[in-house]
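Q: Two folds, back to back.
A: First:
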Amino acid sequence: MTYTSAQQPLIYLASASPRRQELLAQISLPFALLPQEIDEANHTNEAPQDYVLRMAREKAQAALQDPRCTLAIPVLSADTTVVCHDKILGKPADMDEALYMLTLLSGRRHQVMTAIAIATRQKIQLKLATTEVHFRALTPAEMTAYWQSGECHDKAGAYAIQGKGAMFISRIEGSYSNVVGLPLFETVQLLASWGISNTALLTWGVK
């Protein structure tokens, strides 16, 4: 179990995502890592928003059953997916799948959905954030070069807004941090309902 600082963590983070860790560090939230591996297959006819909410819930529930979960603090989990024409785009398995995804996104708008869960063994709260992302038209050479850069290999929808993938995005409508992997506005709202106030976060570590 890894702590982000010498201070006592306020939550567990049920994720191994470096991007989510960086976003929580951005708002000065001390956390302990408790990543979980679960079955991420979507159910037949499952709507994208239902899928991400279920994933966030199941990750939180798995963390609460983890024998490493020994501190009396809540678990924070999240799941992010890219949706284009109601089709869920996960992480590409290979180059062909990545090029298919980028071709589907090229010249179109799509949605990035992130569900957040904060839970203890007594209760759970969830929030859903959605951002509209507009891609310009991409050339085959650009898509191939992007795959070869390695950036899109482990990214939902085969791109990263915080990296070279930003070159493809003409505009977004909604939360930028949601597209990165954790919508901070909605996360802070949830944290406040668990007694972790905005003021506490703003003054954390200030002397």
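A: Second:
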Amino acid sequence: MQLGIFTIGDVTQDPTTGKTPTENERIKATVAIARKAEEVGMDVFAMGQHHNPPFVAPANPPILMAHLAAQTEKIQLGTATTLITTTDPVRIAEDYSYVQHLADGRVDLTLGRGNTGPVYPWFGKDIRQGIPLAVENYQLLYRLWREQSVNYSGRFRTPLQGFTATPRPLDDVPPFVWHGSIRSPEIPEQAAFYGDGFFHNNIFWNKEHTERMVDFYRQRYEYYGHGSYDQAIVGLGGQVFMAKNSQDAMRTFRPYFDNAPVYGHGPSLEDFTEQTPLTVGSPQQVIERTLSFRGYAGDYQRQLFLVDHAGLPLKTVLEQMDILGEEVVPVLRKEFDAARPAHVPEAPTHESLVARHAAGKDPIPGGGPDSQAAKDRAQQAEAAQRDHENAK
């Protein structure tokens, strides 16, 4: 189990002091949080991608990833979102390969569509084409990382003739890709088709919805022959806020929740924590709640926590991370690893991907010859041939 931190880089006023950090302060705070994540023993630090206020998450995450790679040694650097819809796949292929080299392989990315309408036309795109953009752009990205010379023609960008993305991925193995979605079944279908990971940022959703999305992905992962239902690669997100007892945690966090850009002015804190994975309470409550996710998501590989949202000051965020590192993460790691069956894989790393590639076990998009998908295609072809013969 990989346990880590993700940030969306919001610049939000602290409702208890009225102070809003400057962009410079927020960016420097993000770096401090990433370094703290490694210090307290986290496995992953992931950052969002935004092009609009009130966010200062990097518009090009590899810039921050490269900076963090030079200041850390072990932690995996990922994205909470890489906008596959409004970012040119050629740019993604080259930028992430480059930072993969700088970080010695400690890089992965979560592809997402983005749900901020005005961003799409800024980059000449139509939000109504979000799903087709995500599907077509990833088809190209997948090829750019695996083929030396790419000929390409599609709906959404200019054609390519004999194009080679440079640099090539480290050890000829691309960064691992998670496909992120909170509501669209086309995205877990895409993740399953390629044998990639599926990340469900269930921060806003009830467990029943998350269970349906993860279940669908697992079914399709098995259908395409990449492994059994419970071997699919799943990640979840959530937010926590802790104090020694739940009363103090609720009292301290309430003004931040009530005024948060994404939480505030809706359901109460009590209702939201009951209905979604948001956990506000003691460290033990966070442990118990997080372990319960396994009950509806199965044995999953990555759990990321949001800790710096809604105007929380850096001092408080770092204190929260100390609690996570000292009291929560060691217990979660031990319990999750003890419960995971031997046949369920751990989260992919560069080293495990290199070993898989060397053994010739890379996933086959659309399913290998022994997959149910291949059998269904053969049956369809036979039926079509019979129909053709009968029509003569």
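Q: And?
A: The first helix runs from residue 23 to 39.
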